[in-house]
C-alpha cells in the first residue's frame, strides 16, 4: 500500500502559501491602471495566474444552473437534496413554477471528477425533463466509520434513488455506471419493483469491453488485479476527514487522463499565458473555466475501483451472464416493459463502437420496437453527452425516446 497520497498532500500544504500569495498579488495587480507598461503587467499577471492555479481542488464546483428556458418561459432553477447517504446525494434541479415533466435520473460516473462535469448535460435535459442527478461525495471527506463502497453499493444506490423518484421515472447513465444501471434495472424488473424505470438509456458505457478494445481497456487487462491494488491504491492523508480510508486518488487518475493528451494540455496553458499577457480576457476565461472543472478531482473508493477493473474490464462478468449482486445473478433478460436506448460516438477512444450496443443483445426481454440505438458520427467520448452535437443531434432523439416511454 503506497503512501504517495500522503506525500502529495504534504507537498500541496507546504506550497500553499506560494499559491495564496500569487493569487493575492494578482488581485492587487488587477487594480493597477493600465498604460504604457501593459505588456509588462500582462506578463506578470500571466505568471501569477499560472502559479496560483498550480494545484488541484478537492471541493465540488458549483453547478451554476440558475435558470433554464422551457418553451418560451425562463424558469428559475433551485438545487434540493431529495435524499442522501454518506456516499452520495440525490440532487434535484427543481424548476420554480415549472410544468409537470417526465422525472429523469441522470447517473454520473465515479471516475475521478465530480458530477458537475455533467452540468451541460443537465442544463440541456432540464428543458423537457424533471432532472435528478447522482451527486457523489468525495471519499476523502467520508470517515472510515461510514463503511465501504463497492460496485454492489453503487448499484444499491441507484435502486434506492429510483425508489425515491417513484414509479415511471427514467434513468440515463453516462459512461462507466452503465453496468450498474443495467444491473439495477434488471434486479428491479425481476423483483417487479414499483419504481423500476420506464426507460433506460446507456451512453458510451462499457457493457462489453471485449468488443474493439481501446487503450484504456487494454491497460486494464495488461496487469493482474494485485498490481492495481499494490500500485494504485493509497490511504487518504491524515489531514482529511476520511483519514486512512483506502482510495484510488483522483490526482493519479487525472495524471493518467492528462498523459493521454499531454501535448494538448501543455498548449492550452501556453495559450492561457499568452492570452493573459495580451489582455485577451475572454479567451483566457474559456480556458480557465475548463481547467477549473478539470482540475477539481474526486478520489474513488478502493473497493469500487478494484471491483470495477476486475468485474467489468478484466473478467467481463455482465456480458458473460456471470455478474452477481448480493449473491444473486444479474439477469438482463428479466427486463421487460421498459424502453432501452444505447448511444455511441464514432470516434470514442475510451468506449469504442459496439461496447454499449451489446446491451441490446443482453436485454432479450425488451420488445424490438422499444429498442433504440444511435451512433453519433464525428464525436469522441465526451461529445456523446456534451457539446453542440449532443444538444442538436443526440438530445432530440433521447427526448423523444423518453416521452414515448412516459
Explained architecture:
It comes from Bradyrhizobium elkanii. This is Poly(3-hydroxybutyrate) depolymerase. InterPro entries: AB_hydrolase_fold, PHA/PHB_synthase, PHB_depo_C, PHB_depoly_PhaZ. It is an enzyme of class 3 (hydrolase). The N and C termini lie far apart (49 Å). This protein has a nine-stranded mixed beta sheet with strand order 1-2-3-5-4-6-7-13-14, with helices on both faces. It has a three-stranded antiparallel beta sheet with strand order 8-9-10. Strands 11-12 form a two-stranded antiparallel ribbon. By secondary structure, the protein is an alpha/beta fold. Helix 12 links the parallel strand 13 and strand 14. The radius of gyration is 22 Å and the shape is globular. The protein is built from 13 helices and 14 strands. The longest helix is centred in the N-terminal third of the chain and has 26 residues.
Amino acid at each position: 500500500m503506497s503512501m504517495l497520497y500522503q506525500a502529495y498532500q504534504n507537498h500541496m500544504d507546504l506550497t500553499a502559501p506560494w499559491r495564496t500569495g500569487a493569487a493575492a498579488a494578482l488581485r492587487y495587480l488587477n487594480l493597477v491602471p493600465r498604460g504604457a507598461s501593459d505588456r509588462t503587467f500582462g506578463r506578470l499577471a500571466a505568471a501569477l495566474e499560472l502559479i496560483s492555479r498550480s494545484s488541484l481542488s478537492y471541493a465540488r464546483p458549483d453547478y451554476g444552473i440558475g435558470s433554464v428556458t422551457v418553451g418560451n418561459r425562463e424558469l428559475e432553477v433551485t438545487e434540493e437534496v431529495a435524499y442522501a447517504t454518506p456516499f452520495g446525494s440525490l440532487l434535484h434541479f427543481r424548476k420554480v413554477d415549472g410544468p409537470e415533466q417526465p422525472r429523469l435520473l441522470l447517473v454520473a460516473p465515479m471516475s475521478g471528477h465530480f458530477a458537475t462535469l455533467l452540468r451541460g448535460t443537465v442544463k440541456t435535459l432540464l428543458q423537457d425533463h424533471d432532472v435528478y442527478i447522482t451527486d457523489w461525495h468525495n471519499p476523502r471527506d467520508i470517515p472510515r466509520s461510514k463503511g465501504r463502497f463497492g460496485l454492489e453499493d453503487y448499484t444499491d444506490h441507484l435502486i434506492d434513488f429510483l425508489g425515491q423518484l417513484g414509479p415511471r421515472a427514467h434513468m440515463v447513465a453516462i459512461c462507466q455506471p452503465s453496468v450498474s444501471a443495467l444491473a439495477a434495472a434488471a434486479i428491479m424488473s425481476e423483483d417487479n419493483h414499483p419504481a423500476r424505470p420506464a426507460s433506460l438509456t446507456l451512453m458510451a458505457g462499457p457493457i462489453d469491453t471485449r468488443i474493439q478494445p481501446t487503450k484504456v481497456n487494454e491497460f486494464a487487462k495488461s496487469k493482474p488485479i494485485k498490481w492495481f491494488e499494490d500500485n494504485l491504491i493509497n490511504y487518504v492523508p491524515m489531514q482529511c476527514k476520511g483519514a486512512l480510508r483506502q482510495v484510488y486518488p483522483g490526482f493519479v487518475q487525472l495524471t493518467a487522463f492528462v498523459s493521454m493528451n499531454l501535448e494538448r494540455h501543455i498548449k492550452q496553458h501556453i495559450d492561457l499565458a499568452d492570452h493573459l499577457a495580451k489582455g485577451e480576457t475572454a479567451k483566457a476565461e474559456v480556458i480557465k473555466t475548463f481547467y477549473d472543472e478539470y482540475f477539481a478531482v474526486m478520489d474513488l473508493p478502493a473497493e469500487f475501483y478494484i471491483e470495477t477493473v476486475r468485474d467489468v474490464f478484466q473478467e467481463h462478468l455482465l456480458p458473460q451472464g456471470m455478474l452477481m449482486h448480493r449473491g444473486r445473478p444479474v439477469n438482463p433478460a428479466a427486463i421487460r416493459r421498459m424502453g432501452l436506448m444505447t448511444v455511441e460516438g464514432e470516434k470514442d477512444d475510451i468506449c469504442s463502437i459496439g461496447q454499449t450496443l451489446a446491451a441490446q443483445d443482453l436485454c432479450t426481454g425488451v420488445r424490438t420496437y422499444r429498442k433504440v440505438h444511435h451512433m453519433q458520427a464525428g464525436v469522441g467520448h465526451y461529445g456523446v453527452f456534451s457539446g453542440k452535437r449532443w444538444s442538436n443531434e443526440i438530445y432530440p432523439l433521447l427526448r423523444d425516446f423518453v416521452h414515448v416511454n412516459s
